[in-house]
Specification:
Elements lengths: L9 E2 L6 E2 L2 E4 L8 H12 L4 E3 L8 H10 L8 E6 L1 E2 L1 H10 L5 E4 L2 E3 L3 H15 L4 E7 L3 H7 L6 H23 L3 E7 L15 H11 L5 E7 L6 H4 L8 H8 L2 E5 L3 E4 L2 E4 L13 H7 L1 H12 L12 H9 L6 H27 L3 H27 L2 H13 L9 H10 L6 E5 L3 H8 L9 H14 L7
Helix pairs in contact: 1-17, 6-7, 11-12, 11-14, 13-14, 16-18
Length: about 475
């Protein structure tokens, strides 16, 4: 095991923990995916030491993978951050059975709660999945669902905000008990609304969360906040929304560790912009032939299912998954659209098909063996399809790079993803930037940002913000 980046470690606020400036974000990282496991191991071998996951990532399967990998590393070598609050999947089944108090019924299949009765189940289930005695940091995961839900029904004002922080305070009181029990070491909040302007109805305030913790105990363990921050969503660094201080300024003053999420996935003008390059300079966009080649492993295995095992292909009117993807993918207009459609139009139909086949053929060696191999090859193929979709957006990435340079970033041949991460890494008060590194090569690319020359981050973000306010930076039609 190497610690090549040990000299880059920085404090996680006043927790006493030293974290790598790049954290391994586990959103869409799941147990059973060999690439995801290899990437996490590569990150840790390269000296990375902060893993950020959640109970709802992969419906618990992200935490399971973390636990499997951590068996091979000394426990004190890794900072484990997990979260709770979402009621989906297994948790939705549990909530319907248990009838927890103060559940926010935000939407069909999306409930939320930070009530101690629900959090009690979440802490214990997360630790069980990760095979850990304790988590280093436990975060309330997007508790602003309460405010967002209220905003659907009425104007959100002082009464709603007072209730929100009462709920936060009681959750903190519960988490203090978990600290005393040795099940967690520190706690905090991950909120997408921390960076919002003061006037925003559903803004969440780090300052008021701090006051809630102070009211629970003068020796509280509220020490970490997490929020989105990227080139387009820079409120955490620029909005003075905590009694005249930005989130980063207030957090530094109070000794709060700051984790940044979505560093490369920016939401702007109701669209998502991926801050990364898809093609090398001068490389043409791939065509239908490349998509056909990407799907070839799936097509071969589908042929094997019918020709060698005599099991009919029930998916897509008998035409199969490869044919279905070859039909719908060319219609996808952007990576954001692919992200939005992926679960409903790709994952769920495949899961329904697999369940149907399991009912018909489960227990037959030819099916069981085939399915085990197919389940191994499908995830990397789908990731390759996602990259294929992204390659059509290289012109957008080129425009982002040009605007970033106009905002003051020195001209460079470095990948756009490293440039975007470098801006965040140089912000005063940032503990770790959480990057989704689902493949080992992504780990290598991301780690390279740590050693880049420092840049004037605040001035770059400020100029970039002014530029996109004057004229929309990109059109993702």
């Amino acid at each position: 095991m190497t610690h090549a980046n040990a000299n880059h470690l920085r404090p996680l606020g006043s927790t006493g923990l030293q974290c790598h400036p790049l954290g391994f974000g586990c959103y869409r990282v799941m147990e059973g995916n060999a690439q995801h496991e290899a990437a996490l191991r590569e990150y840790l071998e390269r000296g990375g030491n902060l893993i950020d996951t959640s109970a709802n990532y992969g419906d618990g399967h992200s935490e399971i993978l973390v636990g499997q990998v951590l068996r091979d590393f000394p426990r004190d070598r890794v900072i484990v951050v997990t979260k709770g609050g979402y009621i989906q999947g297994q948790n939705l089944t549990l909530a319907r059975r248990r009838n927890f108090p103060e559940v926010v019924h935000y939407g069909d299949g999306i409930w939320h709660s930070i009530h101690p009765e629900f959090l009690e189940t979440q802490v214990e289930m997360s630790l069980s999945r990760m095979q850990l005695e304790s988590a280093d940091v436990y975060l309330l995961h997007n508790p602003e669902y309460f405010l967002e839900d209220q905003a659907h029904h009425r104007a959100v004002g002082e009464v709603e905000h007072d209730e929100f922080y009462r709920r936060v305070r009681e959750a903190f009181r519960f988490l203090e008990g978990k600290v005393a029990d040795g099940r967690i070491r520190w706690y905090g909040i991950s909120s997408n609304n921390f960076p919002a302007p003061v006037a925003a109805q559903t803004r969440t305030s780090v300052e008021r969360c701090w006051e809630a913790a102070e009211s629970v105990s003068p020796n509280h363990h509220f020490r970490v906040v997490q929020l989105p921050l990227n080139l387009y969503e820079s409120g955490g660094a620029l909005e003075q929304n905590n009694n005249g201080k930005t989130v980063l300024e207030f957090a530094k003053e109070k000794g709060l560790g700051v984790l940044l999420n979505r560093p490369l996935n920016a939401f702007f003008s109701n669209r998502m912009i991926r801050l990364a390059d898809y093609l090398r300079t001068g490389q043409p966009s791939p065509g239908k032939e490349q998509l056909h080649a990407i799907l070839e492993p799936v097509r071969r295995m589908e042929q094997e299912l019918g020709e060698q095992h005599g099991i009919p292909l029930l998916y897509g009117e008998g035409k199969g998954i490869a044919h279905y993807l070859e039909t719908i993918v060319p219609r996808v207009q952007s990576p954001a659209q692919w992200e939005q459609a992926f679960y409903e139009y790709v994952v769920m139909p495949i899961e329904r098909w697999a369940t149907e086949c399991q009912q018909l053929y489960g227990g037959r060696p030819e099916w069981d063996g085939w399915w085990n191999r197919f389940a191994d090859i499908l995830p990397p193929v789908l990731e390759e399809v996602g990259r294929y979709v992204g390659s059509s957006q290289q012109a957008v990435s080129d425009e982002v790079r040009a605007q970033l340079e106009l905002a003051g970033y020195p001209a460079t041949a470095e990948p756009l993803s490293r440039m975007a991460a470098n801006v965040l890494l140089r912000l005063d008060g940032v503990s770790s930037v959480l990057v989704g590194m689902r493949r080992p090569e992504y780990v290598e690319d991301s780690m390279g940002a740590v050693t880049l020359e420092p840049v004037g981050s605040l001035s770059i973000l400020s100029r970039f913000r002014q530029m996109i306010a004057q004229q929309p930076a990109v059109s993702l039609q």
